[in-house]
Amino acid sequence: MSIIPTSRAVSAPNRAKTPKGQATRARIVDAAAALVFEEGVAGTSLDDVGAAARVGKSQIYHYFADKSSLISEVVTRQTIAVLAGQEPHISRLDNWGSWAAWRDQLVREQDENHCTGGCPLGSIANELADTDEDARAVLVDSFDQWERAFADGITRMKAAGALRADADAASLASAVLAAVQGGLLLCKTRKSTKPLEASLDASIAYLRTFAP
Amino acid sequence: MSIIPTSRAVSAPNRAKTPKGQATRARIVDAAAALVFEEGVAGTSLDDVGAAARVGKSQIYHYFADKSSLISEVVTRQTIAVLAGQEPHISRLDNWGSWAAWRDQLVREQDENHCTGGCPLGSIANELADTDEDARAVLVDSFDQWERAFADGITRMKAAGALRADADAASLASAVLAAVQGGLLLCKTRKSTKPLEASLDASIAYLRTFAP
After folding, report:
1. Confidence bin at B18 (pLDDT 50/70/90)
2. Mean of pLDDT values over B111-116
3. At the top level of CATH, which class does the domain B79-208 belong to?
4. Which long-range contacts (CB under 8 A, 24 or more apart) does A131-140 make?
5. Best exposed site among A70, A119, B69, B74 by fewest CB in 10 Å?
6. Which residues on A lie below 8 Å from B122 (Cβ)?
7. pLDDT of residue A17
8. Does A125 touch chain B (CB under 8 A)?
């Protein structure tokens, strides 16, 4: 299963025609993603992005219509990063060993980050879901992709007889994603991986109750 | 069980000595809470708060040392509101009927709000947990109080024999709070109560697996 997202932004006008233009555009998105992760969307100005990417504001406007379309691109970029960061396990959640390895990797990452930052997608969703309809649409896509990885694993476990037929892949996958998001928020607030561990462990243990 | 929080802010210098002063101070906190809920902390200036509360900035500084101490007070105020909004059920989660009623109330509230806003505490935590240590401490207290309501219900159900002795009240309560937070974030992002329902239902169903 491939979980590389299909980017909405690709269908938006992309004025980077040359390799150099593409590189500049990517540098702007990378700089914006790093700033948004640390300072939030409201705390990140296009001047900040320009300074960090070493480009003028006119160059930013050459590639992006406005801050909102740059932020939508940041969401697409972070979706790729967040999902890639859960590989190889998230693409093969068709056995309990992979679920355990996926859980351990998420917890370890927060431990290594000293429980700062939380989920880059969850943070942007929290900030923009009510105010930026374009960003919200991209975030819905992102969460759908993430959830689909869980649902695919559950569906394959059902097919293999490792989970009962009454396990509802879609709603279980949705509950797992909520457990990840809530666990990461509590982890970031409490500066401890304990709430994330409790949340993921409960989530996987609940899934296990659907074993035949 | 009383879940009225013990406010840290009460022990901070409170310069509102008269009933009129108390009323002004409360009006400032109410205005700040409403603005922060809609615009976020970064999007709320003390000028905005002053305008909404019909007080000058010097009056705000009379009652609060700085924006950060006002925000800490907003967290305390929202904690009271969030927990009160889950009454009467959250104080009596010692039977399955109360868990179901509590769940329905949370879902109904989001439905009535058209899935906007999310959790006032979760939103502030997401924004400030890495940058405002004072606010973070108050938020940890808030989440602890919220979680304690779940843990108390679980503990009483264990005592009454409705849950087995191996049900770990603390980690189950932590997982329920994560389910609430993650469910509310996905609800706000997807503009649908479905993810919140999936998350809460999985959480309560998992709890039920500890019934004897």
Report:
1. confident
2. 96
3. mainly alpha
4. A132/A68, A132/A71, A134/A68, A134/A69, A134/A72, A135/A68, A135/A71, A135/A72, A135/A75, A136/B189, A136/B191, A137/A8, A138/A8, A138/A9, A138/A72, A138/A75, A138/A76, A139/A75, A139/B189, A140/B189, A140/B190
5. B69
6. 126, 185
7. 76
8. yes
Closest Cβ opposite residue A186 in set B181, B196, B203: B181
Residues of chain A where predicted confidence (pLDDT) is lower than 70 = 1-15
Question: Is B189 in Cβ contact with A125 (below 8 Å)?
Answer: yes
| In chain B, % of residues over pLDDT 90 | 89
- Domain A9-78: give its CATH code: 1.10.357.10
Nearest to B130 among A117, A140, A195 (CB): A117
Answer yes or no: is pLDDT of B111 > 50: yes
Q: Which residues of B touch A136 (CB under 8 A)?
A: 189, 191
Indicate the residue of A122, A125, A178 with minimum beta-carbon distance to B199: A178
The reported pLDDT for the residue numbered A18 is 87
Share above pLDDT 70 across residues of chain B, in percent, rounded to a whole number: 93
- Residues 13-72, chain B: which have Cβ within 8 Å of A? 40, 42-43
d(CA B17, CA B24): 11
CB atoms inside a 10 Å sphere around CB B65: 11
Task: For residue B31, count other CB atoms closer than 10 A to its CB.
Answer: 22
CA atoms within 13 A of residue A95's CA, in its CB half-sphere: 5
State both tokens at B77: 């105020």
| ipTM score assigned to the predicted complex | 0.92
The class that CATH gives domain B13-64 is: mainly alpha
**Span B102-106, average pLDDT:** 98
